[in-house]
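Archive transcription. Copying these from loose printouts into the bound notebook so they stop getting lost. Printout 1 of 2:
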Amino acid sequence: MPSRERAFLVLALLAAAALASLMQALAAGSLALPAGAVWDALLGRGDGMSQEVVRGLRLPRALAAFACGGLLALAGALMQVLLRNPLADPYVLGISGGAAVGALAAMLLGVGASFGIEAAAFAGALSAMLLVFGLAHGDGSWTQARLLLTGVIVAAGCGAAVALMLSVAPEHKLRGMLFWLMGDASHATDPWTPLLALAAGLAVALFFARELNLLARGAQLAATLGANVGRLRLALYFLASLLTAAAVTSVGSVGFVGLVVPHLVRLALGNDQRLLLPAAVLAGGALLTLADTLARTVVAPQQLPVGVLTALIGVPVFLFLLARSPVRSEA
């Protein structure tokens, strides 16, 4: 268990990293700006072009990327407690697949407005969430294994539907559909919805932090020590699903953030959910913001899917973690 001083130090470093990633996102681009010019633009003192670039274009995208990274990391931390599996991530229960089906169906039907695509993605995510929970809880014998298997099957079905839509889509729509599937923050122009979802989700998760610490040690021990395990599992499932739905609705399917970030934070802070959850939000937000900045600047003026970069970062990091500490079954 880390000392209080070390925990506050790690949280302070993560907060600084999050701020630095946001500043870098505001400064980098085809119009490179020094830090002083970025601050002037934010405060409304810079020239008109700098203010438009920083406040009108880069700031909404950077805040949306940060919020979605935080949402995915928080959902991943909750899923790993819910399933007591260190390999669980926000997409394991088919929520992302449902969102993909909704978004791609809207694109295929010619919905051009980003709001319509986001609404369809959120509707698909909620439909997948209700389907998984309804099937897993059908006869009242809800178990972690049954929930996981149901989610995997629903995700496979969504994957088949996505493949079918891609195979029949006209060529001029394929690029946008593929970018959404691989993660694309370029259309995330409304950061306030994911930011509000992140703030509300973190507040609810911290409210259950003590019970989460008990559940992480096993359902029987948690029940013995007074936790309402059934209620807690239900709350965790719906909360993690809604957080995932909010993230993928804004930036599409971005992998590895919810899988790798909780592991890294756990190595630094231990498994106390009161510290791990806010730390995961800061680390996940900083990671996705940095990845999105790289996605739009590495081969500018072309943009890369942000999900490709998170995978390129996440795969070697996760392999390193596996090499240092082999995964043990906790079921």
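Printout 2 of 2:
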Amino acid sequence: MEIIDQQLGGTTPLNIVMNPDQKYFDYLKEAAQEKEETDFDDPFADEGDTAEVNFWFNSNMLDRVEKIHDYLESLPEVGKVQSISTLIKVFTQLDKGRKPDDYDLVLIRKLMPENVKDSLVNPYLSKDANQIHITMRLIESNPNLRRSDLIEKIRHHLVEELQFDPKTIKFTGMVVLYNNMLQSLYRSQILTIGVVFFAIMFMFMILFKSFSLALIGIVPNLLAAGTVLSLMGWLGIPLDMMTITIAAITVGIAVDDTIHYIHRFQTEFKVDQNYLATMDRCHGSIGKAMYYTSVTITLGFSILALSDFMPTIYFGLLTGAAMIIALIGALTLLPLLIVVFRPLPGHARGE
């Protein structure tokens, strides 16, 4: 990705589509009405003499497009920028620094070869010259890249500094789709985790037949998921398609450990109804199985750290860390809560 950003002008495409404002369309309606009122049939009139009316392909609007083009190129997060302004820059260089005027622009559109139009005009200007496309590619390897903030920054500059109508500006391209996907991932992450924890607690109540045990069992799961997400925030690791799944994996692992430990604790507690003795027996039996299973899976995920793809490295290391945190919570916090709050029925002897 760094090679593409540095040598090929950026990675992910972002497009700006700009249309005329409502005043232009009102002007066209008024001009058409005036023409109908004042026009008369002239047998000697040549229809080809009618001057072409368009919004963008004139010297005034192209100067504004050039300001947009230059502003986008000045942004450190933006790589290669292409627009109809590229055509004007080429003709300006060929004409020793003189920008083409309106007469030159009419000749350029009419006399330009089709192969040149396909490269420098058609991708960035509609056939009626009333819509322009400005394309750019973002430098994804830039550590300061914030897609949503960048889009709003560009929109603010176009509206506040260059006085364009916000209704005439639309952002399209892979960047917009990817940014919208990430925003939906954030919202779904919060909603999903909340629903999942309620569902897990309901399942615990059915499985253990105790509200207090279900409440105690959900705490290590909350701790594991919260710790991993906090660790990612502290290290500055962004949530994306790879890292956003880690919280769900953490919850799944912590739930397994919690079910195993509480079920074994309930079975062992019936022997002598002693909380501390039961905890010792659980740690010596199911605790060892949980320990070896978690360590084995952690080492397996740690192999992903040898990858050259950074999201894969994050996924492997953070998933391994999540498993360790879930194991620690299940072997320390969970038995401590059981011993302190004594949720199991029956008279407990000794401690």
